[in-house]
Protein 1
Amino acid sequence: MKYTNVIPLLHLGALALQTAAKDVTEQTKDSFEEKNGYSVTKHEKNINLQANENSIGLKQNMVEANVQSRQKDESCSALDQARRLEVPKAKGTIDAEFEHADFWDEHGDLIKLAWSELSTSNSNETENAAISNLQNIIHPSFYSAVEATHRNPTEANEEVIWSHMKEAGPPGKSQAYKTQLLTDEGLRLLRSELDRATSSGILMRRPNAMNRYGCIIDREVNGAVSLPTLTSLVKTVVSKIGRPLGRMLFADAVGEGDDCEYFAFTIRYNAEEDLELKEHRDASVITLNINLNLPEETYDGSSLYLVDDEKPLDFDVADDYEEERNKRYSISFDPGMMLIHRGSTQHAALPIKEGTRHNLVIWVFGAGGDVRIAPYEKEDWLGVSERWGK
């Protein structure tokens, strides 16, 4: 149901019920005429008809009261209406991306309007301006290296970016890298805006098929958080950092068009909510995983591990391969750290023991959700200018 069409639909529904009530009255009268070959007395007929009409009148009054109540709701803001919705509890932890999809589709437009109202009625212009500028939230030396490469895409400038990246996971496999992405101030700005969303009273859809706690950040997805500050920030991070960095780090896997779309969401782990995450691969060609814990927000456990399930090129002996395959490489997150890895890399999150871990995850993929698997030949890799959008 579209939010803008609620009132017309209610009017049509009321008319339909009124028509049905009229039909019931006529059918009841006819049934009295037919009973016992017209043997019902006039007095009995009047009593029965009056009782039936009273019942129908009561039903009509109830319908009118419901319509008036909904019309009264329509005079309230979309934000007020969205806050009155009761969200169905997220339960599934496997293949649950469409859990309660009907609910989110029905109320999607209303929720989007609510986020729009919230963004204009309850915003801090100073913080909004700060969070919209990457220079205010990205680690200074890394930001400078990225900006320099956008302005002048050369292999020499890329080398400066490489110096900020540390390989994570299986050594020498080019499966994953990590770097310090966000400053402490950037973390506080981002978390402040996310806290504004979670405390708004607006319902938020589960982030993905496995995680139940967190939110989707998107302007179009029904049930997603669509605050412009957050959707614009995610878009900028992808275009300025995630997409070119993925093309540079995983040149054999990412070509033109393989990274044109993305899906962003937050996840939250603690003992009372999601405790861990089972082994899986992402629906992406590359994944950005950014820790959002503030420096003072400590936690124990919840390390992410990558699985080395690919046969090394230099392993010809089966016994050696069996010793190496399926090794787990544990990665602990520092506040503001970004892990970028191939979506095809098997990974999981170990159980959290204490505290809460907050992360922003962005899946990057091709048009319509396509995820390329086959590697490119080296002669088909994107050049440095193509990697950085020139």
Protein 2
Amino acid sequence: MKNRLVDLNNHLFSQLERLTDEAMTAEQIEQEVKRSDAIVAVSEQIIRNADLSLKAVSLVATHGDRFAQALPMMTAPAPAEEGGQVRSNRPLIKAAGT
């Protein structure tokens, strides 16, 4: 499984297909239902996280980087030497017109 939302969508549809398999026994269906419940719980967290990230990007796009300190996930990691270059702690996304 990959780590993109489209991959999550594909995974959810695959699970739906497994649930509709008419050749499964009652025990297999019960096991797939439990598996589906776990997948749904994790999926909901992934979707909430993606929604929060989208809101953060939207905030930066609308208001510039004045909120950057409050959004650590939107900035590069702390300065560190990497291949002879020092990484900056500037926002990864700039607002339009800045």
